[in-house]
Amino acid sequence: MDHAPSTDVEPQKEPHRANSAKTSRVLAAVLVILGVLVMLYPVTSTLWNNYAATKAAQEYAKLEKNAPQEVKNTQWERAHEYNENRTIGPILDPWLARFDENNSDYQEYLDQLDANDAMARLIFPKIKADLPIFHGTDNDTLQKGLGHLFGSDLPVGGKGTHSVITGHTGLANSTMFDHLNKAEKGDAFYVQVSGEKLKYVVDQIKVVLPTETEDLRPEQGKDYITLITCTPYGINTHRLLVRGHQVPLDPEDHEVFDKNHGAGWQWWMYALLAAAAVVLLLLLRWLLKNKQDGESQETTETMNDEGAGADD
Fold first, then answer.
1. Catalytic: 179?
2. Annotation says 162 is catalytic
3. Which label site among 211, 246, 251, 254 has the fewest CB atoms less than 10 Å from its CB?
4. Domain that holds residue 82
């Protein structure tokens, strides 16, 4: 009679503890998986945004190719006339300067090279950039591609012109000009605009303060394009200027415009994938071990119960 209470209570406690442990394991696994998904978000978002930017550049090229030659000629001539006749004012830092976009000069600027959403396409094979160039340098523009700096010449070439193209570095979900710091003198980059193909060779690389814009001014008899981004990475106190001068296209250069030079998989993406794989493998190992421990414990308890029944 002394053992009767214990046989009534124990069977109710064991299932409760087992269910509680199982729930804790499931919750822990869900939290780990959610953490892995958060870890991989920069990879997926960057790949997607890079794809979208490169697709926009190639879509521009396709539209330009299929556009009537008369339209392309008109756009080309008007752009050169604009460069020749525009009022040359101060060149301002694209990330610091703010101005009224409703003024007549800016509206006239927006009317140039406006047959498509983008005004041109930039290809820089060395830094894996194949990006559309849009009018202006506001934040929304620089989130989807490169921006042409209002106040500089349109990127159609010509003696005495200097076009300035800006792009972000250090965006959490897009590459843009992240690799511009890998550019070296002698590297070639290309511009496709209004049915024309232009080639530039890097001849100057400088790091300057945002207020130091002297290197962005045109020079008589020179044909320049300068690519500009913030530096150092994540600090952005200075500007990296990569300038190129126009040279004739070589026969093999025409193939450049038919290929995809956009940013793809990068080392940090592989690193995050490897880290995620390690975490998931550790989680799987932990779950299997817990399952085995649980089965072992159930077997032991069953044997004990059978032994106790035999003793009775």
1. no
2. no
3. 251
4. 53-264
